[in-house]
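Morning F.,

Quick status update on the modeling queue. The single chain you submitted on Monday has been processed. Sequence for confirmation:
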Amino acid sequence: MESTKKLVPGIIFVLIISYTAMFLSDFLKAYINLESLTIAIIIGIIYNNTVGTQKVFADGVKFSLKKLLKVGIVLLGFKLNIHAILKLGPQILTMVLIYVPVSLALAILLGRMFKANEKLSTLIGVGSCICGASAVVALTPCINADDDDSVIAVSIVSFLGTIGVLVYSAVAASNLNLTEIQYGAWSGLTLHGVSHALAAAFALGDASGEIGTFVKMARVLMLVPVSLVLSYMFNKGNNDSKKAKFPMYVLYFILAGIINSLGIIPQEITKILTKTSSIFILMAMTAMGLSVDFKSIINKGVKALLIGSIVFLVLSSLSFVVITNIL
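Structure tokens below.
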């Protein structure tokens, strides 16, 4: 009971910042489409590096980062509809199966070229190829990456995703004769976070929005095989007691997706579960920001931004050419 009481102040503090970030995100939408995840991290970093996160909040902040994050990732699975994903057809599913490993491999290769931290470049690749910030935070413990690396990766993929929404929406408004299927598939295949992909995909109409949603969910599903591969890569030849372990919550994530696809849970309940997922992940991002020492990440940021930008520019351009010629 005493240990539970210690969690309360920190959890309340994290929750206040999280809702402040949501409010600011909605307020700023008229000017810039900035995710509440990014805003929460920024607030947390600024607070921790100016005022300093007080000890009374420490236990609750740690709980939000380590425990609520995993629950949030599991609940994210209730957004999946495996039947809808399988109906996309072999061409689009093949694109997803190619896009994800190519994006990840390119990020890791660029990381080696620029002599960047391997785990950081891997997280940039994960965020770029699967589902943005959610994928980064889900796979950070999988490869035993530092919280600093996770914060940088989340910030960069969120930033690039926001820029992508603006650019893609401009493309939708232009006269490029893109079909709704082509544009929706392109948005769902290449934009970082779920919110980024959906915001851009619906810019051309409901049909493109639905296609973009299904394609994006197919990418989210790739979280499972990617986590298996990365767990193996970062465990191989590692006898350290702190070696990375496969995160069991990823299996619970796919189980949630299967349950949702069976349609045995009322839609109202599913909405509550996915909303709870968003709040828990947001709280985890807030806690991450409150745990960051800005001095320790500033030197890594430039290379990481360059890697993420090149991956996005190259893969987005190539995917556009492929999709407009095949679909």
